[in-house]
Amino acid sequence: MSINYGNSMNYKTYTALVIVISLMIMGLLSNRDSTLIIGDGMSANPCQDPLTITVGEIDDRFGITESEVIATLKNVSEKWSEAVGLPVVSYSESGEIELHLRYDVQQQMTDRERQFRNRLQMKEYQIEALENNYMESVENFDGSTTQNGVGFYRGGSECT
Fold first, then answer.
1. Is residue 57 included in any domain, yes or no?
2. Closest Cα to residue 158, out of 138, 134, 146?
3. Pair (34, 111) in one structural domain
4. How many separate domains does the chain show?
5. Does one domain contain both 31 and 69?
């Protein structure tokens, strides 16, 4: 199965969004009563009518579009309904539950941590490159002294 992540959504963003939507659905389903008693002993099963979810606000800093969120929401809803064996959740423009993707302090901290890890990794690569250059220079220097057979080799003249 091929998944189109959209123009701006990458695999990590798609995966995170699927997890968020799945956790939301699990929470909503776990809070539903399996049977409601309505007046005069009549009962109803709320799972017969699927929950409807709509997309609320999406902060631009997440880098995903509303159409990408809707497509992901529909995909996850289908998977949940298939797993349960009946339609338990679906997307609707006028859904009873709104999904908001708000960029808050926790998201800012996560982004800063990711940026710090990226900078740290770049520094590690730079250190590794410097170490490799140093080792190469040592090997070249050692090679020049053994080729001459005498002491050190400095700028065209031998030192003993």
1. yes
2. 146
3. no
4. 2
5. yes
One-letter amino acid for residue 117 of the chain:
R
Q: How far apart are CA 14 and CA 96, in angstroms?
A: 24
CB 48 within 8 A of CB 81: no
**What SS3 state is found at 134?**
helix
Q: Report CA torsion sign: 82, 84, 85, 90.
A: negative
pLDDT of residue 20: 78
Looking at the fold, whether 49 and 18 belong to one and the same domain comes out as: yes
Divide the 160 residues of the chain into consecutive groups of 10 and give the mean pLDDT of each group: 50 76 72 48 56 88 88 87 82 88 84 91 95 90 60 52
Flag whether the pTM goes above 0.90: no
Q: What is the pLDDT of residue 95?
A: 86
SS3 assignment for 2-39: CCCCCCCCCHHHHHHHHHHHHHHHHHHHHCCCCCEEEC
* 82 belongs to a structural domain: yes
* Domain of residue 27, residue span: 11-103
- Nearest 5°: CA angle at 75, between 70 and 81? 120
